[in-house]
Amino acid sequence: MIQNKLSHPFILLLYLITTIHHAEAHPDSTSAPEQYPQFRVVGFLQQQFIDDYTTGISSQFIIHRARVGVAGRITDRIGVNIVGGATEPPDDTPRLVNAFVDINLHQLMNIRTGQFLVPFGIEGPEVIIFNPAIERSTALRRLNTFRMFRDIGVQLSGRYSTLSYAFAMVNGTGANPTVNTPNNDLVGRIAIEPINGFEVGVSGHLGYFQSQTDETRRLNRIGFDFNYGRELFIVRGEYIIRRDENLSDNYLTHAGGYLLGGLRIDNNWELLGRVERYEPDTSADNNRYTGITLGFNYYIKGQTRISANYEFRTDNNFSALGNLLTVQMQLAL
User: Fold this and answer.
1) Model confidence over 88-97: pLDDT tens digits?
2) How far apart are CA 259 and CA 231, in angstroms?
3) Which residue segments constitute the domains of the chain, with CATH numbers given?
4) What pTM, to 2 d.p., does this model score?
């Protein structure tokens, strides 16, 4: 099983900082030499006001996420990203977020090792500040098996013309693992961009998960996605089918997905809408979650923005579930 070699990221960070004065310039015959290492401070803060109309839940202000770290390059081929979260959902506890090294061998083969976003679908591997909606879709989160959508392992990725790929072998326990599984998980995505701005992909996942009774069970997932993005318009969607081994020769299949669209009115204002659906058991009737999200983003600079989402929610398994209003101030470095 892959071991967590980056369990002490601050030791690695200290090493990188102490070498900054000893870096040599990278030779370049056509331009001024680059100086390495090169690092910058990265991170973001998300403060939210939530008004949940579910029975027994009141409105409140929260710090949803608060992350800070460093990212940069040791050489022109080796990059580093180390980010910690002072508060992370769902329980508002500090966590290590990213701790990985990138080795760029060729556009056809790049290696990433450490703790990173797992390559499955579109929204999963995307840093959350770039999602047009405040949060990933409920359907996607319920079908996800990786804590914080991250895990520890090794990934190979590359691109050739319009074809791209990313495959990873990971522990299967998610970020900051607290349990062990008997084998590693294999997960990956292949995508093609037939026309500029339009990409379609397929993802797969073979692995294990920890059940509520602490039993280790097999699972497999397959996902289909598309993304069309222009300067002022974006539309994307994903559909995932997940099958969990329940008991001997018994399986639970659940599935779901979303469709999201965004329209930039000008440089600041963006309108968005999302519809989603999740079935926790595809063989059963009347056990469906459906959601409709309407909202807007007001971009101040870069990904620093003010956002508001209103979600119309219906869950056949939880009749008390009400609608949800979320207003968020996102400050991104």
Assistant:
1) 998 889 999 9
2) 19
3) 45-68+100-332 (2.40.160.10)
4) 0.86
